[in-house]
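Translate sequence into structure tokens.
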Amino acid sequence: MLGTYPGRAVPVEAYGEVMERSPDVETRVERFTRGSDLGWVADTLAERRDEILDHWLEATTAQPFHQGRREHAVADHVPHLFDALVDLLQRSAPRSVDPGAPLDDSAVLLAAREHARVRMTQGLQPADIVVEFRLLRQETVGALRFHLADDTPTSDIIGAALLVNDALDGAISLALEALTRSIEEAREDFFATTVHEVRQPITAIKGSLQLAVRELGRPAPDVERASEALQRADAATNRMVRVLTTLTDVSRLTLGRLDLQPTTVDLIEMIRVVIGRLDSEDESRVALNAPSDLDATGQWDAAALDQVMGNLLSNAVKYSATDTPIEVAVQAHTETVELRVRDHGIGLTEEEITRLFQRYSRGQGANAHGIAGLGLGLYLSRGIAEAHGGRIWAESDGPGRGTTMRLILPRRVPSAPAEP
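Result follows.
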């Protein structure tokens, strides 16, 4: 009995022997594609590269998890992955060359992993990343379906399709593996940070309460001293609640579960409220530049934006000297509202700016000056801004020259496309 294998008729028994000798799912595709001429396919894909990637981006932008935002769907590593696949096909074009396992190719491996990593930092779910790889597969194989010459040998087409499909299947596996690792790291970080950050206020609460109990237990208690101790305990409790709220929100953001509840919000009024929560000395440093007739309203999640405003202002206060001003400016446009918070403090290097919004990232200046912080506020702020369809970024002329934080929000949170 005969079967078809690498373009020729071979006994099924021999096919079975080959299968027994290559149980490794990562390498067995080599045997299926050996003997194929992959040059036809490589040339077609190279010629149609921009068209394929444009169609992929259009299809990806239309997915609900990107909410129709092209700039959010743009992916730097998908073109690298496509080019690496084409390069692999070109190197393996002659029938005498063994194409090798796609995920043994360092360029394919790196591009697949990096795309998955970046998408996870954007909050995409595993199913979303799988959809992106499936769309790339559809556009790539679809190009072969419509653009290969009619006289291209079927065995060569099948060999190339097998190689491309196996590489993208492997990319999907890498994405899921990376997501699992990310979830484990997030869980460990959450636990370690929670223990560390909650221990301090708990210690303060316990000490303050013990002092109050001792005072109130005396024959002639010092009520004022006991009251001050209870106020310190209350302040420490509030601090613990803020820490736990931040950690919980960061966890939700990391896992893609940050849900917004948009209502009509006046950004200028919100900023005034946040400024009013500062102590009197810090409040006096803040200059708000917003015309009284400026329309800075939008459909936003009030609680989430309050966190962003609080983070930006508290950072400006912490990272600048007490005798320097903090300038807050609001500009309104037809479709967007922009906020700028400018301090004249320790500033940032270019390297610090690139990683400023990463989880647990803190500037060297903050560490050198002993400024306390979790390194989570700006990570959370970026997630909230992007969930609203907006952007947040930092600008600085360098160390010692201050920092400007800029936030742009569309007046309405983009809605996900309706399900077909």
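Note: The chain has 16 helices and nine strands.
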